[in-house]
Amino acid sequence: MHRFWLAALAWLSACSEGAPPPATFVGRSSCAECHATEHDAWTGSHHDLAMQHARPETVLGDFGDATFSHGGVTSKFYRDGDRFMVRTDGPGGSMHDYAIDYVFGVEPLQQYLVEFPGGRYQALGIAWDSRPESAGGQRWFHLYPDETVPHDDVLHWTQRSQNWNRMCADCHSTNLRKGYDAATDSYDTTWSELDVSCEACHGPASNHVVWARAGGGGGDDSGFVVSLRNRGVWAFAEGAKTATRTEPPPSRRSQVETCAYCHSRRTPVHDGFEYGKSFLDSHRLAFLDEPLYWPDGQIRDEVYVYGSFAQSKMYAAGVTCSDCHEPHGLGLLAEGNALCVRCHSAAEFDSPSHYHHAAGSEGASCVACHMPETTYMVVDPRRDHSIRIPRPELSAATGAPNACTGCHEDQTSGWAASAIAEWVGDRDAEPHWSADSREPYDPSRPAIVRGTAFAQLEQQPSRDGLRAAAGALASEDPLVRLGAVQGLGVLDPENRAVQVGPMLDDPVRTVRIEAARVLADARGALEVEAAARLDRVLDEYRDAQALHADEPWAHVNLGNLAMRTGDQDAAEKAYRQALVVEPRFVPAHVNLVDLHRARGRDDLGEAALRRAIAAVPDQAVLHHTLGLLFVRQKRVDEAVAALAEAASLEPNEPDFSYFYAVALHSRGQIDEAIRVLERSHSGSPRHPDTLHALATFERDRGGRSAALAWARKLTVIDPSARALVRELERGR
Questions:
Q1: Does residue 20 have a pLDDT over 90?
Q2: Is residue 639 part of a domain?
Q3: Domain shared by 39 and 56, yes or no
């Protein structure tokens, strides 16, 4: 019998006995046999061209003896027979000739990969602007145009921050395995297909192919563990201004979370994406923390869509990626406002009465107001997918930008707020979670907002927040549970064991291992069975860190875990290994100093800090940590000098300014301390310690009315500050 039919019979037999055999990757050619239309649409798409071998038909840049100068280095791009070459500064700063092995991306820029020893591929810091010349393209440019990037800078193209294996590969290829070997500090990175092919999204297709070739039937999803199909259509009910889906929205585990595998800022906690399971079972999604996001959730750093989309009303209503984007060719399903009015009434929304700008102008574009762009990598504008209503009146309180002044750069947020108030009236009755401390915990808020708010309790605990977090442990959304577990880590061991202990059985890996992390130092408060579960889940946590043995932060995480379990020797070993991986990794230096402090050896800590500062003198946190060490030793003048240096290096970090101000206050320089805090407040208006210090310092120098004003501002963030307000009011 033909071996194909043997395979088909084996598959059918396995299905009749239970689950089919584990699926394997078969390649795009097998898919194209039945799905030619989809394959043709995918061919030439950004997914298809995500990564390619460097060949004349794939290289877009000018390699005709072109030169480009940046930071005192002139690089030359040329051909050597069939090879594409670059002469540029390499390790040690000397000039070398390198062959280009792969091209990375196509539009609006293309990067180039060079092979280094140990299986490493490094991405050049000089990229090709592939936009038309009329748009400013067809040129070489540096990805850090405003910075000089010498060979020993962490951003230099030969450094680990520009390594393809650990930074880029996972989302530009199909079925990628990083293959890092810690013993040899080398990579053996493998993939099934070089680019983002069919099975990157649909999953390994061997069972589907066998099913289809054996006759199939009942749709073309059979043999896959997850279907990416939408259900129903979007239709307008009688008199409705916005369409609704005619069938219940599809599971989050289908299409949207499959796209999130790459289109999100996340960290893998399992080797490979597990199709059909919760996204959080294999990846930890970044919360809406600064500097990734602005305080109101707008995109700031590169966060790749999902974290912003998960905040949107569209996400809550069941909108999926393919409701707007053609999933194979990746283009939009319609251009301009025509895309939006597929679900939003044109008469209501695509009219001057709604957008209050001239028809046909940029301001009349839906996305100009509701999806403003942020440009990354110099030439790559990307839209915010939280699809929010512009709130310029919140910019002063949150420090976040708004779409109005993003276009009207010569105007203020106050001007924009007044203009919108004239159009739609006063919106004070519409609280926003970023401007009211009670709002993030509201169960009606998006899961990512609630999860973020609960996680932030770890740094800024509050009674109301912790009470809400305890209730949120029962949430159906794993992102909410994850944040709640993290926030409840501030509880004492006994209460932590009661509240968080049951989460060791959570079905989602990311939640489960976070519970183990926060319970690591509460083992004695757990029942015997729970303690045994803790040990098993801690092994899962360690396995998640081991996936990132080439990352210094993973070793710091293991060191922190060892500290929580009381194993200081293991912690020191982990912190030192982090510094082997990356000698300039500041958290490892700081944690090692804290370890010396715990052992009563501030002398070793001071010596370690001075070595770290000599290596990376511009890192404010090192000066800050040194200042705190001097505070403990009552070396006041040295403490003030070190804390001042930290505040000077990072004036936008409110914690550094706060501690500097406290040190000044302790030396009797109250006026100067208040000036420092006021400057800090102007850039970080919601920092509670700053507001509390301003209130108490003003009280100390007799400025009771000013103190009361600061205290009242604090109550918006921390309701417990009402006690301070009452105290100041009684003192009148």
A1: no
A2: no
A3: no
C-alpha pair distances (Å), 68 with each of 74, 77, 140, 146: 5, 8, 7, 15
**What does DSSP assign to residue 21?**
P
Does any domain span residue 77?
yes
Where is 532: in which H helix or E strand? helix 528-546
Residue finishing a domain among 404, 424, 444: 424
Question: Which single residue is written with the structure tokens 């395995």?
Answer: 177
Average pLDDT rounded to a whole number, residues 99-103: 98
| DSSP strands (E only) in 189-286 | 234-235, 244-245, 266-268, 283-285
pLDDT at 6: 44
Do residues 297 and 416 both lie within one domain? Answer: yes
Peptide bond into 446 cis (omega under 30): no
Could you tell me the end-to-end alpha-carbon distance of the chain, in angstroms, rounded to an integer? 97
Cβ-Cβ contacts under 8 Å for 211 (sequence gap 6 or more): 11, 222, 223
Count of domains observed in the chain: 3
Q: Which stretches does DSSP call E strand in 149-227? A: 180-181, 186-187
In this prediction, residue 621 has a pLDDT band, given cuts at 50, 70 and 90, of: very high
Q: Is pLDDT at 14 greater than 60 in this prediction? A: no
Q: How many CA atoms lie within 13 A of 403 on its CB side?
A: 23
Largest interatomic CA distance in the chain: 97
pLDDT score of 11 more than 60: no
pLDDT digits (tens, 9 = 90+) for 347-373: 999 999 999 999 999 999 999 999 999
- Which residue blocks in 219-267 are alpha helix, DSSP H? 255-260
Q: Where does a domain end: 354, 389, 424?
A: 424
| Predicted confidence (pLDDT) at residue 729 exceeds the cutoff of 70 | yes
Q: What's the pLDDT score for residue 7?
A: 46
270 lies in the same domain as 411:
yes
Query: In this structure, are 173 and 259 located in the same domain?
Result: no
Q: State mean pLDDT over 3-23.
A: 56
* Amino acid 17: pLDDT: 55
DSSP category for residue 121: E
| pLDDT value of position 215 | 82
One domain for residues 391 and 354: yes
The answer as to whether 533 is a domain residue is no
Tens digits of residue pLDDT in 248-270: 876 766 899 999 999 999 999 99
Inside any domain, residue 613? no
pTM assigned to the model:
0.91
Q: Residue 115 is part of which domain span? A: 51-187
**33 and 57 share a domain?**
no
Are 167 and 308 part of one and the same domain?
no
pLDDT at 719: 84
Q: Are residues 123 and 41 in the same domain?
A: no
Buried b (16+ CB within 10 A) or exposed e, 522-547: bbebbeeebbebbeebbeebeebbeb
Q: Could you identify the residue written with the tokens 């976070």?
A: 514
CA dist list (Å): 127 to 59, 106, 380, 580: 11, 11, 12, 30
